[in-house]
Amino acid sequence: MVRRLITDKRLADKRFRRTEEAILQAFFALRGDVGMIRIAKNAGVARSTVYIHHRATREIIPDYEKYILKKYQKVVQRMLTAKNSRFEAILMRTLIFMVINKQIFRIVLRGRSNAIGKMIDKLEIKTVNVMGVSKNQRHIFKIYRSEVIVLIEEWCERGFNGDEMNKLVENIVYLTKTAKMRLGVLK
User: Fold this and answer.
1) SS3 of the chain: helix, strand, coil, percent, to 5
2) Under the phi-then-psi rule, with left for phi > 0, alpha for psi from -120 to 50, and beta for the rest, what region is 35?
3) Whole-prediction pTM value?
4) Structural domain harbouring 22
5) Residues 156-181: pLDDT tens digits?
6) With contact defined as beta carbons under 8 Å apart, do 177 and 87 qualify?
7) 61 near 108, Cβ under 8 Å?
8) Is 130 found in the same domain as 148?
9) How many helices (H) and strands (E) does the chain have?
10) Strands (DSSP E) along 16-175, which ranges?
11) Is 68 found in the same domain as 51?
């Protein structure tokens, strides 16, 4: 049995996507510790089909998290290597990436994934440079990181509202400035 990973090509395949949507709908409807047999029954597909899509129920959310983080890594590489990549522009591109991929983020966030934290970690170098954090002050970044995650998760819960995106960037930039002020006090 060949396991099909979540990829752009697979998600573009209507048959794969339709089956995957049925599996996800059953997975989230059943909640809790459910087996592949119950998911297959509720999704209306063969058990072997579910196993082709995912090895186990505990891997459904991680499969999507790996997919979205791999896709985001490509975006980050382009952003960080671009000249004059301002912090606000990088934040905006990250949020636009989330809006474009909001279906995947809804799946990942429903599964209580830490994908947003992992995305922020990929931007740590840029963020730390903007904040002026030295190696002995990295605990400030951890506090900042958790505050930013809360803001982004709240925005996601409100439906990835495009009208609120600029306000979200402003709030994150404000947090960055206050973190820089905290660092100044600590020096």
Assistant:
1) 80, 0, 20
2) beta
3) 0.82
4) 8-55
5) 988 888 888 989 999 988 888 887 77
6) no
7) yes
8) yes
9) 11, 0
10) none
11) no
